[in-house]
Amino acid sequence: MVGLVNYTTEMTVINSSGEEIPVEMTASIIYQDGREVATMGIYNDLRAKIETEKKLKEAERIKLEQSNKMASLGQLAAGVAHEINNPLSGILIDASLVLEDLEEDSPIRGEIRDIIEDTNRCKEIVKNLLAYSRQTEPKKELFNINDAIEQTFSFIGDHAILHDIIIDKELSPSMLMCKGDKNQLMQVFTNMIINAAQAMDLKGSISIRTSRDKPEGKIYIEITDTGCGISEEDLPHIFDLFFTTKDEGKGTGLGLGTVQGIIEKHGGKIKVKETSPEGTTFLIELPLFKVTEDTLI
Ligand SMILES: Nc1ncnc2c1ncn2[C@@H]1O[C@H](COP(=O)(O)OP(=O)(O)O)[C@@H](O)[C@H]1O
Ligand SMILES: [Mg+2]
């Protein structure tokens, strides 16, 4: 009768140069007729595995630290935004009253108009900041992502920025059911479309493609533009709060931060799939809601 007993354990061995090496040892003892006749040991060097685990942990720590930093920055910004909202409204009303009272040929009409315009811009920033940091959890309604996209285009379709742009929609004929906040997702698509349009100097094409992977339970939304692309240097920062490469007056750097916040609250992900000087493709992944087998055609 031959028998075999296996043990696996982690231990440290010392090599010929005195270096301590973490290993996983699998030892087997072979018995014959109840007597130990042979032993065999296999040592597996764990250094590479430990190093990879360490790197992964470090990357996770940095990511967490970063998202905590963004969350507190968002809260701080929202606090400030809230405080300056009322005085801004005051400035706007007073400046409008002054403008009304001015003579037609008054030399300061232009300046007052500038005050009104800049104040409106500040109010827009405040509004975006408040939207960014809004702590409300997304609503949980059931809707088809394709409808949210169609509705977004019907809202912004005739925006001047899209006039000379070809819009190509390839929406999946399947039901892309999503449980979440339709308004927030429409805000996502609006931001993505405006960014795409701004990236191409108002001429070119934007295509938006939807699909699903039923076994994986995922909805995919790809937004491709023929814009200027994102440089390697900018790429790691585009989702950061206040990161913008646009001229003053055009960008606030809040768009993609808001987009990422909303997508993540919906249990999804967003990334740049491809970018080159010929254009950019963003990929958004959202969980596909499964009602029952027959509600998903
Ligand atoms: N489709 C795109 N093509 C090229 N660059 C983009 C695109 N979308 C975003 N970006 C880059 O990411 C930056 C941040 O975008 P966003 O957060 O929306 O802020 P903003 O649009 O106010 O600048 C932009 O300034 C731009 O440099
Ligand atoms: Mg933007």
Walkthrough of the structure:
The protein is an alpha+beta fold. It folds into three domains: 2-45, no CATH class; 49-133, Helix Hairpins (Orthogonal Bundle); 141-295, Heat Shock Protein 90, CATH 3.30.565. Helices cover 41% and strands 29% of the residues. The chain has a five-stranded mixed β-sheet with strand order 5-7-8-10-9, with helices on one face. The chain has a three-stranded antiparallel β-sheet with strand order 1-2-3. It has a two-stranded antiparallel ribbon with strand order 4-6. The protein starts with a strand and ends in a 10-residue tail after the last strand. The structure holds adenosine-5'-diphosphate (ADP) and magnesium ion. The site of magnesium ion has 5 residues, from helix 4.
Provide the CATH top-level class of the largest domain: Alpha Beta
Structural class: alpha+beta
User: What is the molecular shape?
Assistant: elongated
Placed side by side, the strands forming the largest sheet appear as 5-7-8-10-9
- Would you identify the CATH H-level superfamily of the largest domain? Histidine kinase-like ATPase, C-terminal domain
Radius of gyration over alpha carbons? 29 Å
- In whole angstroms, the N-to-C terminal distance is 60 Å
Corresponding CATH architecture of the largest domain:
2-Layer Sandwich
Biggest sheet, open or closed, and with what strands and sense?
Answer: 5 strands, mixed
CATH topology of the largest domain: the name is: Heat Shock Protein 90
Helix content: 40-55%
Q: What portion of residues belong to β-strands?
A: 25-35%
Low-confidence stretches: none
Number of domains: 3
